[in-house]
């Protein structure tokens, strides 16, 4: 039995999480059996399922059931541990089933569950169907957060379970649509699954196989970006799909939806159209995509970096802008190719930093926070010529922001930049990448984006040290740093 009440609580809920992971692992086993993929994969899934069950029972045995308490610190620690634990167990099918190294398998699983989308796997077309499905399923589960899904089962913490929901970093201070936390989670997941069903049906109608349509829908709405083609979404044009243009526009639309605050989707479905249209973050998010696509398209046309029609240039620009801002990471054109001028590539890095909306499945700092930082700068300028006694609050959607929220934001932004800088330096020290390439991979990892300015082969060839740094960056970016910092703070473990 565990003596620390905090450690006891974490152990207890991690056992729930592993029990929840078991039926998810059964799905790729079934797919492996359906596609007759061979004994090695069958044995791999059997072993992983049994091992996960054993670990779950062991953790449940260690935990004392009569001392299950939740507070914010414990929720943060549990949040951090959950992503680490599911990534470790999620890596096992790659290690046993297709004989990937531990670091590469952990890298891929972390990129899946954090919906980062970075990959060290090449020749994706040749991977077994069950492995492809497992990669996509990880991103589906990670999209709205494993812990929000887990909340539907882990109900023993009572009213304090809202701590789980707020502990997942990218949902800080997002109002619930309904007072009950479990009903809130059900609403959000219902919307999430509805979008996936809709996209799957549309892509199927446009000529994709059901398997391709479903797996790409998983990784679109989750803004994860895993594809099972080395050319990503560009595969459909390269392979001569008749409706590839419509396929690309459909994926653009659903990437856009994935980058919107899911509580705004709830407002839309309940008829609060004015609340959606007047939302400041939504308006800014939409403008960034539209204006950026126009600017990049114009740059490509004026500088003549691509010999393509105006429609194709706009479509590819719009696709990459949406994929990068929402941190989905799909591509129809390599962002480092000559199709895009140098200035566009610098612009892409900026979009990677911004990310999607608060309360969405996207990574990045978030549009709302960038707006707040802009308002802070504007307020400081005003202070120069306004009277000293003037009150100049920072407001968003006509609401005055609390000073604590502003301090939290500036601290988060500072740590975000520090993590990218530190990771970029370590990457440059332990690889032959130049500074541009090193920093772009850390932008991609911390922002949970996927594409960077180096190839998959280069990324796969990086040293284990660099890959571990990127794994830490992906988890930190997904949790928005704070839970990971708490995890490393000895004071947080005193209870």
Automatic annotation (TrEMBL):
<feature type="transmembrane region" description="Helical">
    <location>
        <begin position="406"/>
        <end position="430"/>
    </location>
</feature>
<dbReference type="InterPro" id="IPR003445">
    <property type="entry name" value="Cat_transpt"/>
</dbReference>
<protein>
    <submittedName>
        <fullName>Cation transport protein</fullName>
    </submittedName>
</protein>
<feature type="transmembrane region" description="Helical">
    <location>
        <begin position="41"/>
        <end position="63"/>
    </location>
</feature>
<feature type="transmembrane region" description="Helical">
    <location>
        <begin position="288"/>
        <end position="306"/>
    </location>
</feature>
<dbReference type="GO" id="GO:0008324">
    <property type="term" value="F:monoatomic cation transmembrane transporter activity"/>
</dbReference>
<feature type="transmembrane region" description="Helical">
    <location>
        <begin position="12"/>
        <end position="35"/>
    </location>
</feature>
<dbReference type="GO" id="GO:0005886">
    <property type="term" value="C:plasma membrane"/>
</dbReference>
<keyword id="KW-1133">Transmembrane helix</keyword>
<feature type="transmembrane region" description="Helical">
    <location>
        <begin position="246"/>
        <end position="268"/>
    </location>
</feature>
<dbReference type="Pfam" id="PF02386">
    <property type="entry name" value="TrkH"/>
</dbReference>
<keyword id="KW-0472">Membrane</keyword>
<feature type="transmembrane region" description="Helical">
    <location>
        <begin position="347"/>
        <end position="368"/>
    </location>
</feature>
<keyword id="KW-1003">Cell membrane</keyword>
<feature type="transmembrane region" description="Helical">
    <location>
        <begin position="187"/>
        <end position="211"/>
    </location>
</feature>
<comment type="similarity">
    <text>Belongs to the TrkH potassium transport family.</text>
</comment>
<keyword id="KW-0406">Ion transport</keyword>
<dbReference type="GO" id="GO:0030001">
    <property type="term" value="P:metal ion transport"/>
</dbReference>
<keyword id="KW-0813">Transport</keyword>
<feature type="transmembrane region" description="Helical">
    <location>
        <begin position="75"/>
        <end position="96"/>
    </location>
</feature>
<keyword id="KW-0812">Transmembrane</keyword>
<feature type="transmembrane region" description="Helical">
    <location>
        <begin position="133"/>
        <end position="154"/>
    </location>
</feature>
<feature type="transmembrane region" description="Helical">
    <location>
        <begin position="468"/>
        <end position="488"/>
    </location>
</feature>
């Amino acid at each position: 039995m565990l003596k620390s009440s905090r450690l006891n609580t974490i152990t207890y809920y991690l056992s729930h999480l592993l029990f929840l992971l078991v039926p998810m692992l059964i799905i790729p086993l079934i797919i492996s059996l359906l596609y007759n993929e061979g004994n090695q994969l069958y044995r791999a899934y059997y072993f992983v399922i049994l091992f996960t069950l054993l670990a779950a029972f062991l953790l449940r045995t260690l935990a004392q059931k009569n001392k299950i308490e939740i507070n914010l610190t414990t929720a943060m620690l549990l949040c951090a541990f959950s992503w680490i634990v599911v990534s470790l167990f999620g890596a096992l099918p790659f290690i046993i089933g297709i004989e990937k190294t531990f670091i590469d398998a952990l890298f891929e699983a972390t990129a899946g569950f954090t919906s980062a989308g970075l990959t060290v796997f090449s020749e994706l077309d040749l991977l077994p169907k069950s492995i492809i499905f497992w990669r996509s399923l990880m991103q589906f589960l990670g999209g709205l957060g494993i812990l929000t899904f887990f909340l539907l089962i882990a109900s023993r913490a009572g009213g304090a379970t809202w701590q789980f929901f707020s502990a997942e970093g990218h949902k800080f201070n997002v109002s619930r649509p309904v007072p009950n936390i479990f009903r809130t989670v059900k609403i959000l997941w219902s919307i999430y699954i509805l979008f996936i069903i809709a996209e799957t049906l549309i892509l199927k109608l446009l000529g994709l196989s059901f398997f391709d349509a479903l797996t790409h829908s998983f990784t679109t709405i989750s803004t994860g970006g895993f594809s099972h083609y080395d050319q990503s979404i560009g595969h459909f044009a390269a392979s001569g799909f008749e409706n590839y243009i419509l396929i690309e526009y459909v994926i653009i639309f659903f990437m856009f939806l994935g980058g919107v605050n899911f509580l705004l989707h709830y407002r839309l479905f309940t008829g609060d159209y004015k609340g959606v249209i007047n939302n400041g973050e939504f308006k800014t998010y939409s403008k960034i995509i539209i204006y950026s696509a126009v600017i990049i398209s114009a740059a490509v046309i004026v500088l003549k970096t691509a010999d393509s029609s105006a429609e194709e240039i706009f479509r590819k620009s719009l696709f990459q802008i949406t994929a990068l801002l929402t941190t989905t990471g799909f591509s129809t054109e390599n962002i480092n190719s000559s199709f895009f001028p140098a200035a566009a590539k610098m612009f892409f890095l900026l979009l990677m930093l911004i990310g999607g909306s608060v309360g969405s499945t996207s990574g990045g700092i978030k549009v709302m926070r960038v707006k707040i930082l802009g308002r802070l700068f504007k307020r400081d300028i005003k202070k120069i010529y306004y009277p000293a006694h003037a009150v100049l609050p920072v407001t968003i959607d006509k609401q005055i922001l609390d000073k604590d929220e502003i301090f939290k934001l500036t601290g988060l932004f500072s740590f975000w930049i520090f993590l990218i800088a530190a990771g970029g330096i370590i990457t440059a020290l332990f690889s032959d990448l130049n500074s541009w390439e090193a920093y772009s991979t850390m932008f991609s990892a911390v922002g949970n984006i996927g594409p960077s300015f180096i190839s998959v082969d280069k990324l796969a060839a990086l040293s284990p040290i660099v890959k571990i740094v990127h794994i830490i960056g992906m988890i930190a970016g997904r949790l928005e740093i704070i839970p990971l910092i708490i995890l490393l703070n000895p004071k947080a473990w005193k209870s």
